[in-house]
Amino acid sequence: MKHYFLLFFVAMALVPACKDDDGPQPPADGVDLTDIPYSPTAYQLELPPGFPSMNIPADNPLTEQGIDLGRHLFFDPILSVDSTISCASCHDPKFSFTDGKAFSTGVDGQIGTRSSMAIINAAFFENGLFWDGRAASLEDQALQPVENPIEMAESWDNVEKKLRRHPLYQKKFREAFGIKNSKEITRDLAAKAIAQFERILISANSKFDKKFYQNDPDPFLFSDLETDGYFIYFDDLSNSQVAGHCAHCHDGGPLLTSDDYFNNGIEDVATLDDFPDPGRGAVTGKRSDNGKFRAPTLRNIALTAPYMHDGRFQTLEEVVDHYNSGGHFVENVNAQSIQPLHLSEYDKQALIAFLNTFTDTNFVNNPLFQNPFE
Amino acid sequence: MKLLKAASLLFFAIILATGCKDDDSGPSATVNLNFLATYDGNPLVFQQTYDYPDGHKLLIQKLDFYISNVALIDANGNKTELVDVDFLDFTENTSLAEAETPLTITATKIPAGSYTNLQIGIGVPANLNNEDANKLPVGNPLRDTYNAQFWSDWGSFIFLKSEGIYDNDNDGTIENNGEDHPFGHHCGTNESYVLLNFNKPIEVVANETLDLNFSVDWLQLYNHDSGMHDFSDPTKLYTHNPNDLTLAKQIMANFVKALSLN
Fold first, then answer.
1. CA distance, residue B81 to nearest chain A CA (Å)
2. What is the interface pTM, i.e. ipTM, of the complex?
3. Within its chain, how far is the Cα of A118 from the centroid?
């Protein structure tokens, strides 16, 4: 009888806990983790030829353990309210860390308003992240999708609870950051770990890299078509009859982005107040920034369709046709690039052939970047 | 007594050390370099149209450039460096209030004294332009502007960017309809670098802040010796050809007219 009473008591105590948090609760004073060794190993970052130095926050140095934790968090749907959406849901390695959709899908099948950006060489972007640049750093960026009601629709308070009671994460947070108690698992540490993982997502092994940054001796590495595309891309009128005006926004050496925001003329609006999505303007509050979006890197561009912030173009051919048309004018349009280009069919093919030299399948297939739970 | 001697020695040592420190650095001041962009003498507001001297309208969208080797020079030819290299971007000035607010670069600990000349370079000096800016530390102006300002095909920073659209069909409306002329003068390479001198007495007073007020007039950048730039000529709208830098050098040379120290 005594035992039945005790069982009932324990059951009653557990029911509210399950209801609140979907799982067994750690002790109120947390789990002591000091038995788990803490011996972080500095990650040996090798910058590819031509790449800039990486701006790594002093309070978040790269470690093997931090990257490993970040990778687990990146691929774990535990961050979402119903455990259905992970970072990788919208940033899948096989799509070069985007999702192949015009608009990404969040919890409950909700559809977002912008296309997910490919996470490639993002550690080198220092002028804001997201299409509108609203995040100042990778750490800042990593915090946002969790509480976005369309994306993960979760609260960080709850994510912290879930991570604190999860033995795998108790161990990995301890190994990465030396916390002594599970209660010390925080959103800031989670964001730091995710940022560490994202910092190593470096692509630098395309045909373009071999030609221009790795001194590949093969004189036939680039076809004539690709070479002609290069001249068009960089407006080299010594060697081409036409200028593509691509590099104004997509140079930056091996990064293939100027790390800046532009109105690229895709929206037919009467005034700067009429953009359906104001983009950068909503962040800066400046009317003159309305309709501007980040110029994404063109690395692996062949793998990241559909294109533009709203995924309106399905193919690179459609993208090139848009730029060739001259797009739509409003006073902040990037007139350098948004003008009739007068590209012939051959020119367009050459340009696309050159864009295809940016493809880096080693990056996509890198085993270090894959889902650790599979 | 010994203790007193030791204390006295220590006291004098401190006095001497402090004195030496002062003597070494000398009395100094702060110098603000303030830059305004203008169009024909008035604040230049970007994304607005202006009347060009040939009667056509112009929409101006971008103006940025590097300054470098900025130094004060005294009567004996001794140089005091104010700025190694820095970047000025006026493009965000899309309201009158912004256009009337100067971009300021501050140089500190400038020795007080009488100077007779101010030197300023426009562009990136060859020794820095030929260096791999990506290896410079974060915070260095060349490192931080590399993505937007380095033109791979030239292997050079773009020293100056001036962009906009010229109302070529003269219908009073700026469009990108194939009739109007977008222009983009991106000037760079070592041979485009210009070094200017302002011969004027400049007094730097100890413990005070000196404001040196510069203005750069967009219209004067296009005031060639042969006359105002012809934006109707389709061959004069861009300066991207690595084998033909004539126009780029011409525009850079016009800084001698465009930049003034008030």
1. 27
2. 0.78
3. 5
